[in-house]
Model the fold of this input.
Amino acid sequence: MVLQSVKNCLWLPCVLRTPKACFWSTAGGGLIIQSVSNDVYQNLAVEDWIHDHMDLEKQQVLFLWRNSPAVVIGRHQNPWQECNLRLLRQKNIKLARRRSGGGTVYHDLGNINLTFFTTRKKYERMENLKLVVKALKALRPQLDVHVTDRYDILLDRQYKISGTAAKLGRTSAYHHCTLLCNADKFVLSSVLKSPFKGLKSNATPSVPALVKNLLEDDPSLTSEMLLDAIAKEYAMQHQIDHHITLINPADEILLPGISDKTKELQTWEWVYGKTPKFSISTGLNMVYKDSVLDVKVNMDVKHGRIEDCNIDLPEQWLPPGLYSELVKGLTGSKFCPNEITALVTTLLRVCPQDDELHSRWSLLCENMIRLM
Amino acid sequence: VCIHRVRSCSSIRFIKSKYVCVFDKSAFKFSHQQRLFRTSAVSCGQIVQFKLSDIGEGITEVTVKEWYVKEGDSVSQFDSICEVQSDKASVTITSRYDGIIRKLHYSIDDTAFVGKPLVDIEIDASKGVASEEDVVETPPMSHEEHTHQEIKGHKTLATPAVRRLAMENNIKLSEVVGTGKDNRILKEDILNYLAKQTGAILPPSPKAEIVPPQQRAEAVPAAPKDKARKIPVPVSRPIAFAGKDKTEPVTGFQKAMVKTMSAALKIPHFGYSDEIDLTQLVQLREELKPVAEMRGVKLSFMPFFIKAASLGLLQYPILNASLDENCQNVTYKASHNIGVAMDTEQGLIVPNVKNVQVCSVFDIAVELNRLQSLGSAGQLGTSDLTGGTFTLSNIGTIGGTYAKPVILPPEVAIGAFGKIQVLPRFNSKGEVVKAQIMNVSWSADHRIIDGATMARFSNLWKSYLENPTSMLLDLK
Done:
């Protein structure tokens, strides 16, 4: 009644011959599917796959998914601006860039994601959000939830429990939103705060908001209950069976080409390289031998790579030949701590073997790498 | 849907919009649009102003976020032209025509308006005609295969570029499964089909390539030396591949490598190789592996190789030295910071284990585990990567027997190990026995190291490893 997993082998022959409309066909104009995976890249790849390959003319699709801890930035955002990358790496939280627009969100298992797939013509976000609110109210009538005209869902008139984003293609479109059930608010607020100062960019900025978990208002709720309630409402509105089909995003036979999509979402070129051009103008405070040096650094970063770079060091602090080697090496490199560490440590091999020089070089490089 | 092409090269003609060549029915929507007609003798195409279509939800303006094309690029129908954003929605605008982009009406971050021109596309009528002629000339394929394209009642969508590729390789489009939008056949589908036909394995697509670091951090093997090593499948290219050369600038880490290796060239290298019988060491490691695992550490052969090297360096400290730029002074380094070559996504990086002279084999194993996991995660710090005095490279985990390693300045020596092979050897009684044999190849700086020193060091190192119990006598 609640969740049923159906491994329907009858679908497979259908898939191989005409990998289009006829598979997953149910009676009625809708289909509800849920991912068995908690991997943010696999789940985003499923969205891409459905968007690219499914014919949504005859049936619309609702996709339910949850992720293990991850930060998801919008298509045109700047990860350095949106989150604390060092904290993410320390805590092993994944970073993903989705294909839809909008702002940055934090996902963990206490957050549910809903994606509404329709044809381009039937794209209608308000209706979807109203469906979610209706489902919530049907489950717990006393919940004070409503949809704003910014496509957020607010709890108790002030706390954001859901954010929205959308992707429109030539023939199909999807609208997805989050829903905070029981997410870790402490981690959320600390990773979504960027320590970066002096960053100038035209990337889409996120609008920070006060958040609250639905479970704070009603501890008897669980993520499963919420998923089920929303599926029930969707089924009612589309006049289909209240039946959730589980899918495995690693299934290459059911979803041919999905592993390539998953891989692409994990590449550096996609996650970081798609950042719109930005520039950094900041100062490094370096403590060197009882004095503090204020070193100004200016860099332009395009496609995630350093296009132009200038470090304002005191005269002769580094031999000029070495300084120009550093700048030459940085130019064209990825704005990425791993690559720059490899670069600067390799350059150290070909400069004069002088302890003083080495310690200055290490100090400067470590401070710079910390920016990334 | 029949395709009408208009030859208008030499004359200026007023063409009724409904005859203009487009593939889908939506073309008729454009019959009311204004068209600009080019009258130059050079190009035969006509310029169409492609307008930004309705986004829905009453949206009238959007921000242009990314261009996928630039002026002069040729596009096919359904190719992506740009990405625009409006109020949390990201929209991919695709081309309705085949042609050449002649003008982009907006720059990045500009506001674009629905209903106003987005790009100007020159529809090249003559090109379209040429492709039909190609179909006639290719004998094995019937003309019908390519122009009618009916598969079991479904129409096959494929861009002219893809069709040309199929034709060049004598492929029937009806036999190719399309994985693009609306079942379109993409270039990848043709290539996959080709690969199946020739039995070749296609090279991985350049942009989506990730090699998982675990497979490539080869310098510290866990168990691959024994049996379950992956044999790389040779990549052979399919026949008749319409590929193009690709030139990329040398940037970042690669640039640094160029510099280092160029400096290494200035060092006069000499090589010295030998064969080591690791039979006893293999047995010892098998015994010690579970002990180490109980302590939470993976024990490979490298900790033994590293410790034996350090014991050797105590006797031959000149191999742990550094020559200054002018070759005036030799500095004998006190610490044995032994570098371990690691293959990562960036390329070759060499973190080092510090002060091996005061570490036990177990300490070295712990440190190697730490460096390996940091290396795979791409989180090695500058201190891990600097200060090395001597380097070892376990290329044998990937394969090979003999090598000619290049010394990493400012060091003066380096060793490379091949794979361990089970080979027949004579024992002291003259009997043929199974022996675990590995080859080592050393390179040293001939300005301050001579062959005899290298040979003696190698012999000492070899004796420690062939009789591991002898290490007990000299362990500090």
The CA atoms of residues 178 and 185 of chain B lie 4 Å apart. The mean pLDDT of chain B is 77. The longest strand of chain B covers residues 432-445. The radius of gyration of chain B is 33 Å.
